[in-house]
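Before a colleague's protein record goes any further, I have to sign it off. What it holds is a sequence and that sequence's fold in token form. My question to you is simply how this chain folds and whether the tokens agree. Thanks in advance; the entry in question is below:
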Amino acid sequence: MDRILTLALLAQCATAQVRDKLRYVDPLIGTSNGGNVFAGASLPFGMAKAVADTNSGSNQGGFTTDGSNITGFSSMHDSGTGGSPSLGLFPLFPFASCANDTVDGCTFPKKSRSVSFTNESVKATPGYFALQLQSGVMAEMTAAQHTSLFRFSFSTTNSARPVIILDLTDLSDSRQDNASISVDAGSGRMTGEARFEPSFGQGNYVAYFCADFRGGSIRDNGIFVNSRGSADVKDLTISRSINGYPLPGGAFIRFTDSTPVLARVGLSLISSEQACQLAESEIPNFDFSGTQSAAVDSWREKMSPIDVSTRGVNKSALTNFYSGIYRTMINPQNYTGVNPVVDSNTIYFDSYYCIWDLFRSHTPFLIIFDTPAVIQMVQGLLTLYKVQGWLPDCHMSLNKGYTQGGSNADVIMSDAYLKIKSSDIDWSLVYEAVQKDAEEEPYDWCCQGRGGLDSWKSLNYIPVQDFDYKGFGTMTRSISRTLEYSYNDFCISQIAGGLGNTGDKEKYQRTSEYWSNLFKADQTSLLLNSTTDTGFVGFFQPKYLNQTWGFQDPLTCSNIDTGNSVCSLQNTAGETFESSIWEYSFYVPHDQARLITTFGGPRTFVRRLDYLHDQKITYIGNEPAFLTVFQYHYAGRPALSAKRAHFYVPTFFSPTNGGLPGNDDSGTMGAFLAFTMMGLNPVPGQDVYLITPPFFESVSITSPVSGKKATIRNVGFDPSYQAIYIQRATLDGRNYTRNWIDHSFFLEGKELVLYLGRNESSWGTHTRDLPPSLSEYQF
């Protein structure tokens, strides 16, 4: 009977799949309400990312839909990041005309020239972005790997002699030292360079450009400084700033009539000459439609491995799902061959922004969906290790970014090792790098490695107000660092064991239990500004060098903390990073069995999880919340994980401009959404996926490694999502009671069939069915 049902379902779903997945990709999702998503034209993991930039206070992705004005059209961006705006280098700005038809009639400075746009004109699809300015200029853009192509069309009624400028700024106005630009009198080609600061890290970087124009006849060209321009001067070197603000400067080109103008901008981190060569090779004939078509083909190919049944599913669900997947392939960015760090044959990726976010869902998703890209990313991380001496926790614009917690590249390496094991990766070098994280403290652990390792090794925890003279970083986050270092060590043990190093495996398993040294069994928790007890005892607390306890309210930095607590990398921050002790209390991914026992057993564990979610202590817009949605699995209550998933997705995610609950964080939020709707949640660093019913009748993924198709099917699928509880399951036709699967499911093309009902069942609830844990379950 099961076989008959499955065959019938297969026949039904075969006619109800998405034919063109790009129809359901909306790049504008997350362009307001703090999503900070890049909405423009790009190739998957491409360097060139063309979009309109606004003067919004939340323009980290360049374009926003919050009513802000347009300041330019630039060719490099990150996506979904927090902190200061990133990149947005060398923006172009088109004028339909200038006052009195003179150069000085143009408003050159970025802060003064901004102009509104018509909302209904905005169009964003994979590989294409367009809008119309209130000045009448229509701006369209597409991109190749290192080259952007813009098309500016001018209203014949409002403009007779258009002007396009290119200025030497970025989104953050971070230009350093002197910058230069030259314009060729005959062709109008503009070349130049400038030095900028990364948005969330140390140091600086130099970027280069090469801009060419095709279309209207050139009237003249020249350079501008501040609010004045001259066609007599063709070269400019401009100083850093006046009173902290970069002095406006750049070049202009004027045209004799309103013929549409194509502007091609090549990019390089090595030289303007290379930028020109790349532009000429990638878009030799200024073919806008051809470039756009090639970009669309790239995206269509990237989206091809996954198929879902559309029966009973509305457009909103499909758009949420496929747009989330799309956003996982904007960052990181492939800078191989265009960076000054290594030779052109060495893989180099950047905009790992930040691994503290990426390891939780982004990289695990790509391991399934685009394994070759992850292999290159791991190779790129090893490149950074060889050049800089350490794996990064965050890295952008050729520079080290700030470390937020542990050495979480260790988690990515463990995840990749357990699931990929490609011979294209030097796993002995991987192990050397992650072991160095655990054993050697860098001088500047603010941006790499770990701090406080002397205390870690002698006290077996990171103390509050640690004495650390060997390295320097922000002496905060002692609790979250202890918890993250513990899990980092477990991930190292996984690699050690796989490589046959039994001694190191056992060593790092022992150190992975150091989390327990900050658990204060008698610590209570009152509601903030209240005498009401939450009813739970036992929380992590800071501990001093002399092994006496400090105190931090377990609800500080939680979603319900309204006291303006300092929770990030400030030197006045507390002992947890961007989250509360309440939430971090669940962050022991490798030993949930021991944590459950520590909390008093599975019933208390479930009540704690319920309290965390029901009282809104956690917020799904921040990555530490992700795993807590599904941790009911470890207490034998997978149905409650499904219930939480079906609350969070429709409540916090929508296919609208403001449809994300927080920063997309380089596609991490999009990956979490995709995983949740697929009915799987990864436990990063382990070969474990927790099972819940997909939001579709079926989901199929073709492995990029084996070419085999893995499928999850819901029998009794209910489009109203009332029947969301697994009653029983089969794997390749055999009864399956575990509430988790491993990566072989994808590599071997297995089929998981879930039989659904409206009530919680006993499926996946027995101890033998629970996910792996370092300790034995005691229930």
Remarks:
- The longest strand covers residues 205-214.
- Residues 1-15 have pLDDT under 50 and may be disordered.
